[in-house]
Amino acid sequence: MLVMMRRTHSPEELQALLDTIEKLGYTAHVLPGEHSLAVGITGNHSSEDREKLNQMPGVREVIPVSSPYKLAGRSFHPEDTIFQVGDATFGGNHFVVMGGPCAVETEEQTVRLAHAVKAGGAQILRGGAYKPRTSPYAFQGLGIDGLKILATARAETGLPVITEALDLPSLDAVYEYADIIQIGTRNMQNFALLKAASQLDKPVLLKRGLSATIDEWLMAAEYLLAGGNERVILCERGLRHYDPHTRNLLDLGAVLAVRKLSHLPIVIDPSHSLGHKSMVVPASRAAVAIGAHGLLVDVHDRPQEALCDGPQAISPEMFSAMVQTLRRIEAALLS
Ligand code: PEP
Ligand code: MN
User: Fold this and answer.
1) CATH number at residue 21
2) Does pTM surpass 0.90?
3) What's the pLDDT band for 32 if we cut at 50, 70, 90?
4) Where are the alpha helices (DSSP H) in the chain?
5) For residue 43, what pLDDT is reported?
6) 77 part of a folded domain
């Protein structure tokens, strides 16, 4: 529920309200607004408690909030969440380009591609050090050595780094090295991982689960916000489907739905969605046109040698031409 304070409320009245909320066993979120102050309340509450708060001095009205994702939804937080990572601004009217190899393979490969994507207009470098692979025999990532390589690539290019944490031990390691922590599609409902990431002071990019509904995805984001991490980026990466011609079903409509429901930035991963490099550029144009806040895209200059997901990686040349087009579309939409 949402407690709207009177414009004339005193600091003592606010404090008394916060104390009462705590005594009732709920969590209060003070939400300063342009015209008046509101207090959002999370926790399972009863109608008697709602009435009790309604009677308190300084309170104008108590509004029940039906959305199950109180913090990820717009009722407690009508304005877009906007935050900065390096030169990139997530949220609002901004469009962030994150690019790099699917996996960190060697230092030479990662630094080479980091320079290439930076020259092409990337604002963030991507690269997996811990890889969730369908087959246990496939390349699993370089682990901590991969994180060290990403740190070198960041030092050489100045690009902040996004990389995936697979479990609690890798979350600790990724936290040490990354600028943005990625939680992958297979872990969207790994609640232990979400709770641990909620305690960290680094942004988290949360991919949509393989077959997750938008409500399930926003509830997963709610875990991050409820634990205190407010810098959450949602990433649509395609849903499991039945057609063999695209790897997953890119749900662009999810961008529209999420922008309506939530204040969090939402980006698209056209590479893992579609699985073919020829589809990545047009889908990325669609992403900016439909109002996504950015892209996470696989880039490789030697895709036939890539240890992971070569067929969906675009070349650095395609990447840089694509970014120029995306910036033109963005400018046209803002004009
Ligand atoms: C990735 O981005 O490297 C990745 C494994 O993606 P997803 O979790 O979407 O499969
Ligand atoms: Mn991949």
Assistant:
1) 3.30.70.1140
2) yes
3) confident
4) 11-23, 47-54, 107-119, 144-157, 168-177, 191-198, 214-226, 253-261, 270-274, 277-290, 316-334
5) 86
6) no
Residues 33 and 119 in one domain: no
Query: Exposed, middle or buried: residue 21 (CB in 10 Å: 0-12, 13-18, 19+)?
Result: buried
The neighbouring-strand residues paired with 103 are 128
Q: Distance between CA atoms of 180 and 202, rounded to whole angstroms? A: 6
Say if 142 falls within a structural domain.
yes
For residue 131, which atom of ligand 1 is closest to its CA? Answer: 5
Q: Which residues does ligand 1 sit against, CB inside 6 Å? A: 102, 128, 132, 164, 184-185, 207, 237, 269, 272
What's the distance, CA 173 to chain centroid?
A: 19
Query: Average pLDDT, stretch 289-298?
Result: 98
**The residue to which tokens 């901004």 are assigned:** 94
* Residue among 62, 52, 61 nearest 20 (CA): 52
β-bridge partners, 73? 262
